[in-house]
Amino acid sequence: MTVEVFVIASGSSGNAVLVTSGETSLLVDAGVSALQIRKRLEAFGRSPDEIDVILLTHEHSDHVRGLDVFLRRHRAAPVWTTHGTWSRIDVHSNGGGELSSGTTVRFGSLSITPVATSHDAAEPLAYVFDDGGHSAAVCTDTGIVTPLLEQRLQGCELLLLETNHDKDMLRHGPYPWSLKQRIDSRTGHLSNHQSCEAIDRVGSKVLKAVVGMHLSAENNCPNLVCENLRETVANGTEVCAVTRSEMLAVTLDGSGVRFNRRSLPG
């Protein structure tokens, strides 16, 4: 089996990730416009109409901004998220339902385990995907990596993990003090250092790649993220970072991990 992950948007301007295995395609979040979701998927040879299920991490606009229009313009895929997130959005889904942290569900060839995160949202989630041969996790928008989250990340071959900010850059950067406090809080966003500490604690021997996600354009840079990650992971583990101005396809199969970076479509 092959798991493919397409990061078509990552950052405070919008987030959306397509995860596929076999004939199953799941979209995690829809935080850019429906038009951009379509154009960015098509840049990788994928179609919005192949999406079987939409999974939402939480209700913030950079994760749901394009959802309503997307559901009206394309085949209405069922939307699944937590009760708390449902209570904060006004979207009508064709099917779908509620997810609970720790309760695994299966959609086609992929098993999905939602895991609670620590963010200033109603009931936010990370997701672990497993097709029986390979496993990957999408974990952003959390101020800390809890012991439960660490446990769920163990055994994953691919981690798409938030590396939002460098603490020094945030401290000396242009944001107002109140925003700096929010970002650096237990319900904010992970710093490079926090993410690296979490990876070190997870200590997975099967980890093949880490992708830094949700980078701040003002308080981080991809070279710094990759430098920090390389100092943490074991030899042979691939690392990269995705900025808001690009996309990334990650292929996970029996031969390892491959990255394919793309510019945003015009």
Structure description:
The chain is of the alpha/beta class. The chain has one domain: Metallo-beta-lactamase, Chain A. Helix content is 24%, strand content 30%. The protein is built from nine helices and 15 strands. The protein has helices spanning 34-43, 61-64, 67-73, 83-86, 147-153, 167-172, 177-183, 192-202, 222-230, and strands at 3-9, 16-21, 24-28, 53-55, 79-82, 97-99, 105-107, 110-116, 125-130, 135-139, 158-162, 209-213, 238-241, 246-253, 256-263. Strands 6-5-4-3-2-1-14-15 form an eight-stranded mixed beta sheet. The protein has a seven-stranded mixed beta sheet with strand order 7-8-9-10-11-12-13, covered by helices on one side. Helix 8 runs parallel beside helix 9 (222-230). The two termini are 33 Å apart.
CATH class: Alpha Beta
Fourth-tier CATH superfamily name: Ribonuclease Z/Hydroxyacylglutathione hydrolase-like
Measured on Cα atoms, how large is the radius of gyration? Answer: 17 Å
CATH topology call: Metallo-beta-lactamase, Chain A
Low-confidence stretches: none
Largest sheet: 8 strands, mixed
Order of helices and strands: EEEHEHHEHEEEEEHEHHHEHEEE
Rounded to the nearest angstrom, the distance between the terminal CA atoms is 33 Å
Second-tier CATH architecture? 4-Layer Sandwich
Q: What features would you highlight for this structure?
A:
globular, 8-stranded mixed sheet, 30% strand, 7-stranded mixed sheet, Metallo-beta-lactamase, Chain A, 266 residues, alpha/beta
Summarize the structure.
Helix content is 24%, strand content 30%.
Topology:
Elements: E1 3-9, E2 16-21, E3 24-28, H1 34-43, E4 53-55, H2 61-64, H3 67-73, E5 79-82, H4 83-86, E6 97-99, E7 105-107, E8 110-116, E9 125-130, E10 135-139, H5 147-153, E11 158-162, H6 167-172, H7 177-183, H8 192-202, E12 209-213, H9 222-230, E13 238-241, E14 246-253, E15 256-263
Parallel strand pairs: 3-4, 4-5, 5-6, 10-11, 11-12, 12-13
Antiparallel strand pairs: 1-2, 1-14, 2-3, 7-8, 8-9, 9-10, 14-15
Helix pairs in contact: 8-9
